[in-house]
Amino acid sequence: MRIGVSIGYWGSRPPRNVERFLAQAEEVGVESMWTAEAYGSDAISTLAHWGVPTNMRLGTAVCQMSARTPTAMAMAALTIDHLSNGRMVVGIGASGPQVVEGWYGQPYPRPLERTREYVDIMRQVWARDAAVTYAGRHYQLPYTGDDGTGLGKPLRSTVHPLRSDIPVYLGAEGPKNVALSAEIADGWLPLWFSPKSDEFYRNALAEGFARPGARHNADTFDVAGVVWVSEHDDVEVAAARIKPVIALYAGGMGAKEANFHNDVFVRMGWGDVCAKVQELYLTGRKAEASEAIPLEMVEDVALVGPIDKLCDDLKNRWGSTCLTTMILGGRLKQDQLAALVETAKDL
Fold first, then answer.
1. In which band, very low, low, confident or very high, does the pLDDT at 256 lie, cut at 50, 70 and 90?
2. φ, ψ for residue 296 (rounded to 5)?
3. What is the pTM of this model?
């Protein structure tokens, strides 16, 4: 298993000392760094600014598809790939209707079909075999809508991509999306992955690998999951730092009737807790929502406690799962990162 680190998206302001943290992480063998976006800081500029000076693999976990057209995402990816000498990993996700319709002002139709078209177009750009044309339900190049001018012209990237096939990872949580990842992508970016759900996800991946034209099998496919980590001698104190994040995603990141993160925890068996957390969060009682999350629910999806426990949990609970890259969410000291990297080498 490889260890990566997540810089994530910002809160109210940029995080501090990122360059120093990444330098220390790289020194002890952390293999990749990943950025993210919600509705504040973006994942592309932060990845270029902090990631290019390193020698780590650089990924977005994830870029929201509605934030950029497929060709714009392909342009950003090939640019960073050149700047980093071939270290770019394009992680994309469909997000959810609350963000897509509320923030981007776009509809949220047929996310699986739209993802397939999006990836097809990006790969045309990078292959650069010809001018890019596409006649899909969601994307047309040139544009053929009745409200267009009819003057669109097929174009080909002026830049010759450093790599004609940049790796694409899909952020996915439901079984259909996970299967799609295994079919058309080079990796899967789970969020709130739990070892107890490993068989469920292995079955979804197997369905995708078995489809005609699948690019990979289980041996060549990267499952790169963001796993929150919090180190403290008192496990309860460590877990308390992560409870607000779980409360945000399970309770408030999405509408009550359409919260895909909530669905993940419900599948783990936390349905009653999720209902309570969502009710509290959506009525403005965020602190109570966090307090309603039990320690066991945190330990299902995160590494919490003293460093010896973190390493033991990594080895004994996570090591046999389908995860091949663990992206740590949260800051650890350099010696703690080193201990986890060393533990992961044997997994």
1. confident
2. -60, -35
3. 0.97
